[in-house]
Amino acid sequence: MSPLKDAPTHDHHPSDYAENDLLDTYSNSGLNDEEVFEPLSAVARRAAEAKMRQRDRMDRGSRRSMRAANRSHAPTFYPSTVR
Questions:
Q1: Is residue 81 part of a domain?
Q2: What is the pLDDT of residues 24-40, one digit of tens each?
Q3: How many domains does the chain have?
Q4: Which of 51, 29, 25, 48 is nearest to 37 (CA)?
Q5: Rounded to whole angstroms, how far apart are CA atoms 53 and 59?
Q6: How far apart are CA 60 and CA 76, in angstroms?
Q7: What is the pLDDT of residue 65?
Q8: Range of the domain at 45
Q9: Is position 50 within any domain?
Q10: Which residues lie closer than 8 Å to 47 by C-beta, 6 or more apart?
Q11: Alpha carbons within 13 A on the beta-carbon side of 54
């Protein structure tokens, strides 16, 4: 018996998609089509990708810190008797 035998199929029927011009049109906002850029060498591309990975890791880390800071803490059940 194949493990995929009972897996759901992903048949896409025409009724699965409803055309919507508002949602199907992309914005040009933030695109720079005016400037011509020189092709990157393999070394330059790897360096740029490494910088972006580092930036993304730092961004994810700061989001985790913010979530931890905003996390609710358990209430204090017993008043402190330490003086």
A1: no
A2: 888 888 888 888 888 99
A3: 1
A4: 48
A5: 10
A6: 31
A7: 64
A8: 38-68
A9: yes
A10: none
A11: 6
